[in-house]
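W.,

You were right to be curious about this one. When I first looked at the sequence I had no strong expectations either way, so I just let the prediction run and decided to look at it fresh. Below is the sequence, 561 residues in total, followed by the output.
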Amino acid sequence: MNNINDLYNRWLAQPGLDDAVKAELVSIAGDDAAVTDRFYRDLEFGTGGLRGVIGAGTNRMNLYTVRKATQGLADYLNASGLPKKVAIAHDSRHNGALFARETARVLAANGITACMYPRLEPTPALSWAVRYLGCGAGVCVTASHNPAKYNGYKVYGADGCQITLEAAEKILAAIEKIDCFDDVRLADFDAAAAAGRIVTIDEKCLDDFVQAVYDQRVGDGAGIDALKLVYTPLNGTGLECVKKLLAKLGVTHVTVVPEQEKPDGDFPTCPYPNPEIREAMQKGLELCDKVRPDLLLGTDPDCDRCGTAVPDGKGGYRLITGNEMGIILLDYICRTRLAQGTMPADPVAVTTIVSTDMAAPVAKKYGVELRRTLTGFKFIGEQIGRLEAEGHLDRYIFGFEESYGYLSGGHVRDKDAVNATLLVCEAAAWYAQQGKTLLDAIEALYKEFGCYRNALCSFAFEGESGMHTMQSLMKNLRANAPADIAGYKVESAVDYNTDGTGLPRANVLEYHLDGGHKLMVRPSGTEPKIKVYLSAVGDSEAAADAVNAALAKAAADMMKA
């Protein structure tokens, strides 16, 4: 505790300390638990960069932790042969513009040109800008779909992917050498801008991004102009790019959810702005009852995830899961490209180990090689990069993950909800030409391949004690492997934290159960949670869902400390 108190007092004593940071530190004086929570560790820097609660202290997102991370990034870039140029974007979260500005100041002070979007823009637009502008790295200030109290700092490599494990380790090593007060170089923003060290990304870059998405069209677009949409950007960044894309497609019947149209870091109508959950899409669903659209689309705050709902045939609307939409789009892309003669030789699709196993039989039907990666879209982006390096970028046709991330081209190297909007609209219009909906599509696919149903259970463990609990639970599972789960025999188990899996080591446990069912356990890399992924196969949705319900109960028992 002494070291923690020393840190607290050192921060409080800093001359010129930011007013908001100082006020928070003063407010927790004498509260040992509050002080400990803010200073017991440095906010963890990994392949996703930083993500944490906004506030004062080493374990919070604030201008000092952002400056420290940026100084480490600058030192890494200056020691490398990479271009000394970094693209920067931010979403609608609190302090997003401030953190982006501080990032630019540190980079400029270190002789690195900071290229900033003039306003908030989606994460995929940042991935695009890195390659488009020939940058050595990119930074997107976002906490993606986390609640309003969070912000984050995602770092991208020169390839437009989130940084690899190797790059993250090198940047972390550089960060660890830095004192956030004494070792950070900081330029005056206006002076750096006047000297050309901080520059504004022009409109052509963004327009060319939208055009690159538009160029990913798969079909002939028949009927797409007749689509009637309700769209929500969930108070985030999606509105500008999505509307530009829809205009190019000829989709004019678009109603935007008014309460969620404007950027707002409080996310007042959805405390958890994640299109994976019904609460975030509720305002859109309510508007659907009035407008009666063909499709509801929702993008998360940084516009890399896309959620959908379609008419259920009973007067309401049914949300399509990330796995279901991934399968719908994989099937649509394959059948359409084969019909049009645009399928490449030896096509490749990519998904993750926690996404639906249904992708395997669908890919097999169309002669597509299916590659599985660790969780995180950066690993899908990595596969795209490998194909490009081999001179076969055209072989890549689609990648998806269960958490509502989709990408059908190599224009960016991260999941792209603008691209997802294009694909979903295309697929919906194609099925509408046959008098069918996307719900009809997934039901037909279930009938053909079996009902693969997936569910996700998340278990939160807050604070320092929570971190230790998570570590203990994973250790115990490895030491005491279950023989059965929910009455289903464990036929085989995979520990991805060992060699021999064909993938880099990762803290993931996978249990294959009799009946073709599966359960996976993975601590989140961005939140204080353990995620348990459930997968069941049945003759009907009800049968598979019943299996998942039993597995969910077993998962809850497994997560009891």
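Here's what jumped out at me. The chain has four domains: 1-35, 41-201, 210-216+224-449, 451-558. And, maybe more interesting for your project: The radius of gyration is 23 Å.

Coffee later to discuss?

I.
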